[in-house]
Design a protein that fits this description.
Structural class: mainly beta
CATH class of one domain: Alpha Beta
CATH topology of one domain: Leucine-rich repeat, LRR (right-handed beta-alpha superhelix)
Keywords: Disulfide bond, Immunoglobulin domain, Leucine-rich repeat, Repeat, Signal
Largest sheet: 7 strands, parallel
Pfam families: Ig_3 (PF13927), LRR_8 (PF13855)
InterPro entries: Cys-rich_flank_reg_C, FN3_dom, FN3_sf, Ig-like_dom, Ig-like_dom_sf, Ig-like_fold, Ig_sub, Ig_sub2
Radius of gyration: 39 Å
Organism: Pteruthius melanotis
CATH superfamily of one domain: Ribonuclease Inhibitor
Helix content: 10-25%
Protein name: LRIT2 protein
Shape: elongated
Distance between the termini: 77 Å
CATH architecture of one domain: Alpha-Beta Horseshoe
Length: about 525
């Protein structure tokens, strides 16, 4: 008792009949642990730390009658090990961590009169475990009185039983069991599902297991942009299924999903989309699965502007212009992967700020059509991310359905040195396409406004030529211009040129080498 033993002693006398080692430090029963004590009849190893029991740990114990392993840490037992103990009558395994009882578990315990499996982690077992028990089989074959068969005490209480369809056969067995099998505690209780927690086995009626059947009240939804949308699917299944949603933007936008039972065999799953955008449109698939199979239902979601039945494309206004509906837009933040826009509506446009919607047009500068994004009331920022390298983009902000006006667009060009941009998050000064206005944006990215202030336009013809007279600054500017010209969407709108024309290039001076092309990272 309470000895510091870490293994079974090897010098036990051969004629010993009872061994009791408790509150010690045993962690396993290896093969042939008692091969030198074949006369052993009683083995008590309670309250140790035994976690592993070898399949041949009970070898050479044909006379063993009683095995007690209470209060250890066994999560499984090699039940075929009991082929070496045919005379075993008492098996005590309570207060362990057993969570599985295979169908053949009791097949090799024909003379058992006491089996204690209480206070373990058993949740689901089959009635075939007991149908295969020789003690039960003998009682079913007896035609006369049962007095000739010894009673067998069975303890199964204090386990977290999950009372769903998988436990149906076992519950029926417990309700019908009688001598020679006697339950130590016949009031077995359910630990789940929630609506059956605390109920006794004799109070529940369990149905057969069924494959999931999914459904939705409406599989085609059209909703206005900016509203919180809840998609709902219902699943009928037994046992309770696992439910999940799949949709195109799952990696980019993770929506909240809640699943709860509404009846014994029906669960409701809801997916919440806050402030729905047109980009959220598409198919949302609700899938349910249990051990019998899986099934799914798809809900098609269409998000439209709150003032129209269809989503517009391009730049054309959808309705008459509202006088004074002007928005001031600026770059509020720059990251390695994009920019964040911030805008402020003029007083006339913001007369009712709580009801003002905004339209964002985002896309490549040379694209005929831009992606349209609708922003609900109370929001005045938007991040443009996941941009392609060496590409010229344009983003415009307008009130409601108006076409963007002067000063409401931002043009920016992403750099080509992607690896360096990701490795070093350093900022560089960027020459804006219009005149000499400078912004600081992420490494490898140019940014500019598509419209210039009148004062800047007035200074442009005189300022730009002076910067091109061979000075180091002029050469740097020429290098930047060369970089812009080499872009796929290399529009040169708004660039300052000596003749004020579009697309004109400054002639090279004879005998003067053209500055070598440099990538955007070299401009730092």
């Amino acid at each position: 008792m309470s000895a510091l033993l870490r293994q079974i002693p090897i010098n036990i006398p051969q004629d010993i009949r009872k061994i009791r080692i408790e509150n010690s430090h045993l962690t396993e029963l290896p093969r042939g642990s008692f091969e030198n004590v074949s006369a052993l009849e009683y083995l008590w190893l309670n309250f140790n730390n035994i976690t592993v029991m070898h399949i041949k740990s009970l070898e050479y114990l044909p006379a063993l009658k009683e095995l007690r392993l209470q209060g250890n840490k066994l999560s499984s037992v090699p039940w075929t090990a009991f082929q070496d103990t045919p005379t075993l009558k008492i098996l005590d395994l309570k207060h362990n961590r057993l969570d599985v009882l295979p169908e053949h578990a009791l097949r090799y315990l024909p003379n058992l009169t006491y089996l204690d499996l209480s206070s373990n982690q058993l949740t689901i077992i089959s009635r075939d475990v007991f149908y295969n028990w020789p003690v039960y089989q003998r009682s079913q074959r007896m035609e006369g009185p049962l007095e000739a068969i010894s009673n067998a005490v069975l303890a199964l209480h204090d386990n977290p039983w999950i009372c769903d369809c998988r436990l149906r056969g076992f519950v029926q067995f417990i309700k019908s069991v009688g001598p020679p099998i006697i339950l130590m505690n016949s009031y077995l209780t359910c630990s789940g599902p929630k609506f059956r927690t605390g109920k006794f086995f004799h109070e529940v009626e369990l149905n057969s297991c069924t494959k999931p059947l999914t459904s939705a009240l409406d599989t085609n939804l059209t909703v206005p942009a900016g509203l919180n949308i809840t998609l709902t699917c219902f699943v009928q299944a037994s046992p309770s299924p696992a439910v999940w949603w799949t949709y195109a933007l799952k990696l980019l936008r993770a929506f909240n999903v809640s699943t709860e039972p509404i009846s014994e065999d029906t669960v409701r799953s809801e997916l919440l989309i806050p402030a729905a955008r047109p980009a959220d449109a598409g198919n949302y698939t609700c899938t349910a699965a249990n051990f019998l199979g899986n099934t799914s239902v798809a809900i098609n979601l269409r998000v439209v502007a709150p003032w129209a039945s269809t989503t517009p494309r391009g730049w054309a206004p959808m309705g008459p212009a509202e006088p004074g509906a002007h928005v001031e837009v600026r770059i509020a933040k720059q990251t390695v992967y994009g920019i964040t826009l911030e805008w402020f509506a003029a007083a006339a446009a913001a007369a009712e700020p709580g009801e003002t919607w905004y339209t964002l047009l985002v896309g490549r500068y040379d694209a005929a059509q831009k992606d349209t994004i609708y922003i609900g009331p109370g929001v005045n920022t938007y991040s443009v991310t996941d941009l392609l390298p060496a590409t010229k983009y344009e983003v415009c902000v307008a009130v409601r359905n108006q076409a963007p006006r002067k000063g409401q667009c931002v043009v920016f060009v992403t750099g080509s040195d992607v690896s360096q941009m990701e490795q070093r998050e350093k900022l560089i000064h960027i020459v804006v396409i219009v005149c000499a206005m400078v912004l600081a944006v992420p490494a490898g990215m140019y940014a500019c406004t598509a419209e210039a202030l009148p004062g800047c336009l007035a200074r442009c013809p005189s300022a730009c030529p002076r910067r091109r007279r061979g000075s180091p600054q002029a050469q740097a500017a020429g290098s930047k211009e060369s970089t812009l010209d080499s872009l796929p969407a290399g529009s040169e709108d708004g660039l300052c040129r000596p003749d004020g024309g579009r697309g004109a290039r400054r002639p090279e001076e004879p005998g003067k080498a053209r500055p070598p092309h440099r990538n955007s990272a070299d401009l730092y």
